[in-house]
């Protein structure tokens, strides 16, 4: 029976040699050609700035910034950065006019992410103006510190508190500036933990921390427990020993929810094999980053084993039909191999990432994958694919866009 969600992986697995035909020059040419295609499609009008970094034009600005940081694109750097500035300036104007202060505090769908990327782009251009969006970003911490700041769910990655912490982490990494004070970070972490405790108590859970988003108890990276715990681990040195204990208990609880190297989209669901979600947003390709973070912190082999198990599933079922993107597309799957390459140094994972890159340009993929509405976008479209291709050129620095486990 044909799988509705993924193409069959017909590639032979690693036999000790990397792919030929994927040299740096070939990849650089693909990146430049894909960017040309994206820039023809990206809207530059104030009325088309919805979608934030996720599927709005702001994500294109991040991609251009990211490519410009890679030394292999030094000739294109100035043009890419100036274009990034034009795109992000419009998004900043759009979000400055946002009446809903909660949306201004959102990372992937609102203002916090746009201000963070604006600061990165301005700094890369050598503009002292980068302080302005940084200040706007910092002031948003007060919005998300109250325990129930969002009715739909205050803690997830796209619009909630963990997203705000994730943006601060990206800024720390890219600008080498600690944007928030330890007290501000601590206040947000405490709110996340208190919120999770309250929810777990109210719903009589047998484990210490749980969250819901629009009434669903998600487990995956997009809106669920895994990315919330990942952000708490990223700042674990600011937590009390009791708070850390709750976080690690929750990490182990989530590890035990695994079903055949995957995780259901929501708590308590059984995975139906014929309808299995193997996406960054829902399933192993996103949950793997939590266990990578856990492994980097305490080196316990079970966390690395869990990542490796996720990678095996992605090799089998990760050639997704939903498009080229990083949220639920082939590039998002392939990033798991680059993550495992960084964790283990095993060339098998580099080979697998190369094979997935090859598939992205195959006729089978072009004919058989779904068409994407915002084809230029970072999470659903080609901008995320470009970031992945750039990371194939620099595997030792590679990481899923805006979602670092190595800080």
Automatic annotation (TrEMBL):
Zn(2+) binds at residues 281, 327-328. It comes from Anguilla anguilla (European freshwater eel). GO terms for biological process: carbohydrate metabolic process; peptide modification. This is LanC-like protein 3. One of its GO terms (molecular function) is metal ion binding. Belongs to the LanC-like protein family. SUPFAM superfamilies: LanC-like (SSF158745). It comes from the Eukaryota. The keyword Repeat does not apply. Keywords: Membrane, Metal-binding, Transmembrane, Transmembrane helix, Zinc. GO terms for cellular component: plasma membrane. The keyword Ion transport does not apply. The chain crosses the membrane at residues 105-125. CDD domains: euk_LANCL. Gene3D superfamilies: 1.50.10.10.
């Amino acid at each position: 029976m044909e799988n509705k969600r993924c193409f069959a992986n017909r590639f032979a697995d690693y036999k000790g040699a990397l792919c030929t035909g994927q040299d740096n020059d070939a990849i650089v040419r693909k990146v430049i050609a894909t960017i040309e295609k994206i820039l023809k499609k990206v809207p530059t009008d104030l009325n088309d700035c919805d979608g934030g970094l996720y599927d709005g034009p702001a994500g294109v600005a991040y991609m251009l910034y990211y490519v410009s940081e890679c030394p292999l694109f030094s000739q294109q750097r100035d043009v890419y950065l100036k274009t990034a500035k034009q795109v992000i300036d419009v998004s900043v104007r759009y979000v400055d006019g946002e009446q809903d202060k909660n949306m201004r505090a959102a990372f992937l769908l609102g203002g916090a992410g746009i201000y963070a990327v604006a600061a990165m782009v301005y700094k890369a251009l050598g503009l002292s103006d980068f302080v302005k969006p940084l200040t706007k970003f910092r002031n948003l911490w007060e919005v998300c510190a109250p325990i129930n700041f969002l009715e739909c769910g205050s803690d997830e990655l796209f619009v909630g508190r963990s997203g705000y912490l994730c943006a601060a982490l990206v800024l720390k990494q890219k600008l080498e500036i600690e944007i928030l004070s330890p007290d501000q970070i601590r206040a947000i972490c405490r709110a996340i933990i208190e919120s999770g405790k309250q929810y777990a108590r109210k719903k009589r859970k047998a484990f210490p921390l749980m969250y819901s988003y629009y009434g669903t108890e998600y487990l995956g990276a997009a809106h669920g427990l895994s990315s919330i715990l990942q952000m708490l681990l990223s700042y674990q040195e600011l937590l009390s020993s009791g708070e850390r204990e709750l976080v690690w208990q929750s990490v182990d609880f989530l590890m035990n929810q695994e079903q055949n190297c995957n995780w259901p989209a929501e708590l308590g669901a059984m995975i139906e094999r014929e309808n299995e979600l193997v996406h960054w947003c829902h399933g192993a390709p996103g949950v793997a980053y939590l266990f990578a973070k856990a492994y980097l912190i305490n080196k316990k082999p079970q966390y690395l084993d869990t990542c490796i198990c996720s990678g095996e599933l992605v090799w089998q079922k990760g050639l997704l039909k939903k498009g080229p993107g990083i949220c639920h597309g082939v590039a998002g799957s392939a990033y798991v191999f680059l993550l495992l390459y960084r964790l283990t140094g095993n060339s098998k994972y580099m080979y697998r990432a190369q094979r997935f890159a090859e598939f992205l340009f195959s006729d089978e993929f072009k004919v058989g994958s779904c068409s994407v509405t915002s084809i230029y976008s970072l999470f659903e479209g080609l901008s995320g694919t470009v970031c992945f291709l750039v990371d194939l050129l620099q595997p030792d620095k590679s990481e899923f866009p805006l979602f670092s486990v190595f800080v």
